[in-house]
Amino acid sequence: MPEQLIWGMEVFLNGLMAGVLYALVALGFVLIFKASGIFNYAQGVMALFAALTLVGIMEGQVPFSHLINAVFGTEIHHFGWHVPAFLAIVFTMVVMIALAWAVNKFIFRHLVNQEPIILFMATIGLAYFLEGVGDIMWGSDIKKLDVGLPQGINLAIDEVTYNLFDYGFFIDNLDLWATLVAALLVIGLVIFAQYTKQGRAMRAVADDHQAALSVGISLNFIWVMVWSLAGFVALVAGIMWGTKSGVQFSLSLIALKALPVLMLGGFTSIPGAIVGGLIIGVGEKIFEFIMSSDALAGQWFGFTISATENWFAYVLALLFLVFRPQGLFGEKIIERV
Amino acid sequence: MLDTNEAYTTEDGRRIGEVVMEMKNITLRFGGVVAIKDISFDIREGEIRAIIGPNGAGKSSMLNVISGFYNPQQGEVWYKGKKRPQMKPYQVARQGIARTFQNIALFEGMTVLDNVMTGRFRQMNTSLWAQAIWKGPAEREEVANREAVEKIIDFLEIQHIRKTPVGRLPYGLKKRVELARALAAEPSILLLDEPMAGMNVEEKEDMSRFILDLNDEFGSTIALIEHDMGVVMDLSDRVVVMDYGKKIGDGTPDEVRKNQAVIDAYLGVAHD
């Protein structure tokens, strides 16, 4: 039994790390939802698009090369240069800001004061459009992303735990980095929202358009800023997921895992997104560990089940919807009659 | 006595300055409906200027023209001696025209303090980088803004609810918070859209006192819309009377009270 406990601890830690990655995606959702009331279905695709662009720039890929080759009968694929990771990240961020500007200019400016469901539909359209553009621009093959983040087992943790328990924990260096980056990102965003002029303006716009205008806040500026921030968060998430499992189009599906995270954490809370992500990450890993183990579930219940990770998060979210619909940290829904 | 454009002092010793805003032949249409028809009037520095009229007279539309929420089809808006080009509401606000709304527009999820702080948006000028570093200009600015805001909160007697989310406040206090936010901008002109609508007698008296004190102590220029004739006549220096989008009277409360067109509009005479 102590053996199971030690394994359980390792599973717990790995669950935390997985949760951080969920939280990163959820964070992008919260930002846009908070500031504009738009549930941005395209957040996952934005992460994919950012990762694709980053790889493309680093490798010196020619954008739209397939299209160009097909039209002009040329044979171009790469410029033949390599861009250092840091510079490529800066360029990618510029692309994400341009995207934010375009999204506001061509879509959401024209949908001001529309029903939330209409805005939501628009983001679904945006998601498929962006996925298509990503495909045409950079190709659909799975790409390797390496921005120099350390990967593989963390030997220090392995050694310490081996000395303690006679069993070395496997913790990936990349996951540790992701945790660190996510923590910095959240602290930064919270400070930004609470104490800066633009952060206050962002919360103000989220609350009441007319009132925001009357104190001199430009709605368009705030919207572009928020989508840029979401683009930045998407880029960070894209880097982490892309490094972990390669840049592939299934990346856009991780957005779906952010949904239960948001239901737990609340759609309007930045810390909530993080805590929700961690709970989902740990919950599904521990649940899988217990339910698939002969020594635990097998003895307790007389049966084992596996592949629970696919649905556990959603069941948990469902429970939350019944008992605490605003999430753990969401703003209370106060309505005066 | 008010035809000249020179500064003068009122009987109770307040200084009324030069014309700060002038509306010239404003016409505003919504499709076929004419909300404002060829109206001109001015607002002087340091005065309390009221716009009154029956329901649907176009008072709120007028306020929306001044604050840039509506753009008139015809006419000119002159502000501080310059013709104002077409502007977005946020640009008008940055020029120093603050307003409140008839149906209260506050940031419900934020505390009273945060609400009033957003009113200082115009006074926050440090760059994002300076704010990121925080020490130095950004911190000094934040402290200065906080001091100004605390003064206003004191003045309007809402200290006890500083940290309360606005969504939880009763109506009368919300109105006061909205006034505080508008004041925080240190506006050249303060526009109040029915500041006393829906209030009980006591709340109305409080609000009247605040408006008078503001004008008296800080020399604020105030333009307000109000339904309650008694209140308007007591508060204001000059009154514009509107009816069906047209101006039917303009002058001191006494002049307006004697104006036959105004009496007709309020008591009801068949319009032909």
Explain this structure:
- The complex is a heterodimer of chains A (about 325) and B (about 270).
- Chain A is mostly helical.
- Chain A has one domain.
- Chain A has helices spanning about 1-35, 45-60, 65-70, 85-105, 115-140, 155-165, 175-195, 195-205, 210-215, 220-245, 255-265, 270-290, 295-300, 310-325.
- The radius of gyration of chain A is 22 Å and the shape is globular.
- The relative contact order of chain A is 0.18.
- Helix content of chain B is about 35%, strand content about 25%.
- Chain B contains ten helices and twelve strands.
- In chain B, helix 3 packs parallel to helix 6 and helix 5 (about 135-155) crosses helix 6.
- The radius of gyration of chain B is 19 Å and the shape is globular.
- The model of chain B has no long low-confidence stretch (mean pLDDT about 90).
- Chains A and B meet through helix 8 and helix 9 of A and helix 2 and helix 3 of B.
Topology overview:
The complex is a heterodimer of chains A (337) and B (272).
Chain A: H1 2-36, H2 43-59, H3 65-72, H4 85-106, H5 116-138, H6 155-165, H7 173-195, H8 197-207, H9 209-214, H10 219-245, H11 254-265, H12 270-291, H13 294-301, H14 312-323
Helix pairs in contact in A: 1-7, 1-8, 1-10, 1-11, 1-12, 2-4, 2-5, 2-10, 4-10, 7-8, 7-10, 8-10, 11-12, 11-14
Chain B: E1 8-9, E2 15-16, E3 19-30, E4 33-44, E5 48-52, H1 59-66, E6 74-79, E7 82-83, H2 89-94, E8 97-99, H3 112-118, H4 128-133, H5 137-155, H6 171-184, E9 189-193, H7 201-218, E10 222-225, H8 229-235, E11 238-243, E12 246-251, H9 253-258, H10 260-267
Helix pairs in contact in B: 3-6, 5-6
